[in-house]
Write a structure and sequence with these properties.
Layout (H helix, E strand, L loop, with lengths): L1 H18 L1 H4 L1 H4 L9 H4 L9 H6 L2 E6 L3 E6 L4 E5 H6 L27 E5 L4 E6 L8 E6 H6 L4 H15 L14 E3 H4 L2 H14 L1 E5 L5 H9 L4 E2 L8 E2 L17 E4 L11 E8 L3 E2 L2 E5 H11 L1 H9 L2 E7 L4 E7 L2 E3 L5 E4 L14 H18 L5 E4 L6 E5 L3 E5 L2 E2 L3 E7 L1 H10 L7
Parallel strand pairs: 7-8
Antiparallel strand pairs: 1-2, 2-3, 4-5, 5-6, 8-20, 9-23, 10-23, 11-21, 12-20, 12-23, 13-22, 14-19, 14-21, 15-16, 17-18
Helix pairs in contact: 12-13, 12-14
C-alpha cells in the first residue's frame, strides 16, 4: 500500500538525513540513494560512481582540535569548523533508534563542553569523539560518518553551495501561452512509477503546472493518483475529493455551474491557501469549457517591470477574502497580499480571486482610490491572451496546479463537464520531493 511505502521511504530518508545526506541526493551527487546505514555503503571509496571532485569533497585529510571547535580539512581544499556543543547536540548515537528524534536534552550540554579525544577513523571514514562526564550528562562517545559532516558543514561556502544546488534543480521557469505547444506531461503509467512521479514533482517546482495523461476516470482512481503525492486536504466542501459537475440545486460555489471563471487562485479566504489543486477530467462538454491557466509569477514579473507602483501596492497591502456558507457551517475569512515575499525578497505566493473579495472597509480612503486605479492593471495582465494557457482537457487527462503560483479558470460551456479533484498542502509536495531525492530547502 502507499501508506506502507511512504513509511518505508520516510524511515529510509530519515536515516540518510542523519547518517548520509549526500546519498539522499543521488540524482545530482551520483551516489546510490538506497544504501543502508552501514559505513561501508555510506562512504564510497574504490569502485564509486562519484566523480573525482566529489570523492575529494568527502576525503578528510586532517583534524585539528581547539578549545571550542573541531576543524576538518578536506582533499578539495575546504575546511570545516564544528562547535563542540553542535557536535554533541547532533550526535547520531543520541537519536531514538526508530523515530530518529533527538534524545539528548540540549539544555544539559555545557557551552564549554570539549571532547577528551578526537579520532579520525580512516578505514571507517568516520570521526569519533569521546566526551567526558559533565554535571548533567554521562560520559559518551559519538561517531560521525565523514560524509554526513561534510554535507552538514555550516560554513558560508557550504551553505551557499547547498542553496545553489537546490536552485539549479527547482528554479521556477516563467511561462506564458507558448507553453501550450509542449506542456510538462507524463503518462499515468509513468506517474505511478517513481521516475514519473519525480518528473511530475520537478515540473511542479519549475512550472507550477503538471499534466498526466490516460488517468482512469473513477473517483477512487483519481484519489489514488493524488495520494501518490501526499495526504489529501479535507475542507468544508467535502471529505477530500470533489467534482465540478453543474448542480441544479443551490450551489455554494460558482465552480458548480457552467459559467465562465476568470483566472484566480483557490482558497484565498483561508490563511493557509491550498498548495496544490488537482483536476482530472471525467466528462467533457460538447461546447466550450476550455481550462485556463496563468503563471502568476510571470504576471507579477511583468507588472513589476512595467508598473512598479502597482507591484508595490499589491505587495505591501493586505486584502481580505471570504467564503460565507452558513448552510455548510462555514464562514471563512483571511487577509494577505497579492504578491507575498520571503525574507530574501523572493516572491513565494500569489493570492487573488476577485470574485471572493470581501468588502473594502479596511483600507484607507487613499488606498481605496489606489486600489480601483491599480486593479485594472492587475486584472488586464492576468487575463491577457499572451499569458494564458488554454486547453480543453481530454477525458482521462489530469492537471496538477501549484495553487500558490498558478491561477486557473475556465470558459463557459454547454452540456456536461465534470472535473474530479482535490486539494493538497504544499508541505505534501515538499515531503514527496525529499522522499524522491529532489533538493527542496524552502
Amino acid at each position: 500500500s502507499r501508506g506502507m511505502l511512504s513509511l518505508t521511504r520516510a524511515l529510509s530518508v530519515l536515516r540518510r538525513s542523519w547518517l548520509q545526506p549526500g546519498m539522499a541526493r543521488s540524482a545530482s551527487a551520483g551516489a546510490g540513494a538506497r544504501g543502508g546505514p552501514n559505513h561501508s555503503v555510506l562512504v564510497r571509496t574504490q569502485g564509486s560512481s562519484a566523480s573525482a571532485p566529489q570523492q575529494a569533497a568527502y576525503n578528510c585529510t586532517g583534524v585539528q582540535h581547539t578549545s571550542r571547535l573541531v576543524q576538518l580539512a578536506w582533499a578539495d581544499g575546504h575546511c570545516s569548523h564544528f562547535h563542540h556543543v553542535w557536535l554533541r547536540d547532533h550526535c547520531p548515537d543520541s537519536l531514538h533508534p526508530t523515530s530518529h528524534q533527538r534524545q539528548i536534552n540540549t539544555l544539559h550540554i555545557p557551552l564549554d563542553l570539549a571532547p577528551e579525544r578526537v579520532e579520525l577513523l580512516a578505514e571507517e571514514q568516520a570521526l569519533r569523539l569521546v566526551w567526558p562526564k559533565s554535571a548533567r550528562l554521562p560520559a559518551h562517545t559519538s561517531t560521525f560518518p565523514l560524509r554526513w559532516l561534510r554535507d552538514h558543514c555550516y560554513s558560508s561556502d557550504s551553505r551557499a553551495q547547498r542553496q545553489t544546488a537546490a536552485v539549479a534543480e527547482t528554479q521556477p521557469v516563467l511561462w506564458d501561452a507558448k507553453l501550450a505547444s509542449s506542456p510538462p506531461t507524463v503518462s499515468f503509467r509513468e506517474y505511478m512509477e517513481e521516475d514519473g512521479l519525480r518528473q511530475t514533482a520537478r515540473n511542479l517546482l519549475r512550472y507550477g503546472l503538471a499534466f498526466v495523461e490516460d488517468v482512469p476516470t473513477t473517483l477512487e482512481d483519481v484519489r489514488a493518483a493524488a495520494s501518490r503525492i501526499g495526504q489529501i486536504r479535507r475542507t468544508f466542501y467535502s471529505d477530500g475529493m470533489w467534482d465540478t459537475k453543474p448542480r441544479e440545486a443551490k450551489v455554494n460555489d460558482t465552480a458548480y455551474t457552467n459559467l465562465e471563471l476568470k483566472p484566480h487562485t483557490d482558497g484565498c479566504y483561508w490563511r493557509d491557501t491550498p498548495g496544490l489543486q488537482i483536476f482530472s477530467c471525467v466528462e467533457q462538454s460538447s461546447q466550450g469549457g476550455a481550462s485556463w491557466f496563468v503563471d502568476g509569477f510571470n504576471a507579477a514579473a511583468k507588472i513589476r517591470a512595467s508598473r512598479p507602483d502597482v507591484y508595490e501596492f499589491f505587495s505591501t497591502r493586505e486584502f481580505a477574502f471570504q467564503h460565507c456558507a452558513p448552510e455548510d457551517g462555514a464562514y471563512a475569512f483571511a487577509k494577505g497580499p497579492v504578491f507575498e515575499h520571503d525574507r530574501h525578497g523572493d516572491l513565494v505566493r500569489f493570492r487573488f480571486n476577485n470574485d471572493d473579495r470581501a468588502p473594502l472597509d479596511y483600507l484607507s480612503e487613499s488606498d481605496v482610490d489606489k486600489f480601483y486605479h491599480f486593479l485594472p492593471v492587475l486584472l488586464t495582465t492576468l487575463q491577457h491572451e499572451s499569458l494564458g494557457l488554454k486547453r480543453v482537457l481530454k477525458v482521462g487527462e489530469m492537471v496538477i496546479v501549484a495553487n500558490q503560483r498558478v491561477l486557473h479558470g475556465r470558459e463557459a460551456f454547454t452540456g456536461v463537464r465534470n472535473l474530479v479533484g482535490c486539494y493538497l498542502d504544499l508541505d505534501e509536495l515538499f515531503s514527496c520531493c525529499r522522499l524522491l531525492g529532489l533538493p527542496v530547502w524552502k
